[in-house]
Amino acid sequence: MRRFRKTLTTAVLTTLLVGSTAGQASAGGESVPSGPIPGTAAWLADDSLGRALPDPVTATPSEVAAFFAGLSGAQQQRLAEDHPTVVGNLDGAPVQLRYRANAPAGDRVLAYDPRGRGLIAQVAGDLESAAHVSVIVPGSDIDISTFDRTARQAAAVQAEAGGDTAVIAWAGYTTPSGIGPDLATGRLAETGAERLTRFTDGLDAAGLPDPSLLCHSYGSVVCGLAAAGTDASDIVVMGSPGMRARDVTALGTDARVWAAKSPDDWIDRVPNVQVLGLGHGADPTSAGFGATVLPADDVPGHDAYFTPGTSTLTAFAAIADGDL
Questions:
Q1: Residue 29 CB neighbours (<10 A)
Q2: What 3-state class would DSSP assign to 216?
Q3: pTM beyond 0.70, yes or no
Q4: Which of 77, 106, 170, 215 lies 20 to 30 Å (CA to CA) from residue 189?
């Protein structure tokens, strides 16, 4: 009984310790945008092509890709102009078409959903001609208002990796905000994993290389839950509270799994437990987990893994570029 109480206590502490740099308290759980993307009704009612358009909710990315492959350039362009919110978020649609649809949101934006705190994906590099693709999956407190942080990380990896690598800053899920129960549970990560799986399926349907996933903090929980459903070549986690798996085998993936944790990262104070739905399980840098551990002694803290000049950024770029 004493051992159970100790384990439960550490699980509850996870709620308090898996925090954010913002340090703001969150009174309740985050609201996740649900239902079809705005504009879906008009899209489904569009009969200008003489046939039904793919349902954004039920059509697979490969079905979406096949649909657009059967259209002329002018037909594709018209759909993007008439239904930008749908085409801009439609996994499997041509990359350039999504850029055009999302142009008001910024340069090289691959997805943009303004609902709630906002979801966005932006590309550093030339995605269409890339020999290698990476996707950065951020942790807590990232949304439209703070997205620049993730965009800068993508730019740093891309610059270090070189011109044949494209890096996508993917804030495509509702992240935990502040310090609250969402940080210690898998609720938001489960939804995020579904969205990440569909997003990577869309990259595959568009004919792009299998991506490497670079997953920070709570983002590593998302990547752990998505691992079995993606075709990622590599999964890299840093500052991870756990991946909701006991070891690499339990992730159910053929991807190479890498892990990094700075000795100065406060995440080390978070108990690696998973009980009664709280906590995210084993430390991916622990010997028994089975990931390849990357050096991180020169990383000054939890949010500094992508800092230029660090051994971690060098390693991430080498993995992204297929050199490691």
A1: 15
A2: strand
A3: yes
A4: 106
Crossing angle (nearest 10°) for helices 148-161 and 311-320:
70
What is the three-class DSSP state of 141? coil
> CB-based burial of residue 232 (10 Å sphere; 0-12 exposed, 13-18 middle, 19+ buried)?
buried
- 74: how many CB neighbours lie within 10 A of its CB? 8
Distance CA 162, CA 40 (A): 38
How many other C-beta atoms lie within 10 A of the C-beta of residue 15? Answer: 18
* C-alpha distances in Å from residue 36, one per residue of 42, 138, 265: 11, 24, 39
Residue 13, pLDDT above cutoff 80: no
Question: In the chain, what are the domain boundaries?
Answer: 2-33+115-320, 38-105
- Identify the CATH number of the domain defined by range 2-33+115-320: 3.40.50.1820
Is the pLDDT at 29 greater than 70? The verdict is yes
Query: What's the CA gap between 183 and 189, in Å, rounded?
Result: 9
Question: Does pLDDT of 193 surpass 70?
Answer: yes
% of residues, the chain, pLDDT over 70: 91
Higher per-residue pLDDT: 14 or 193: 193
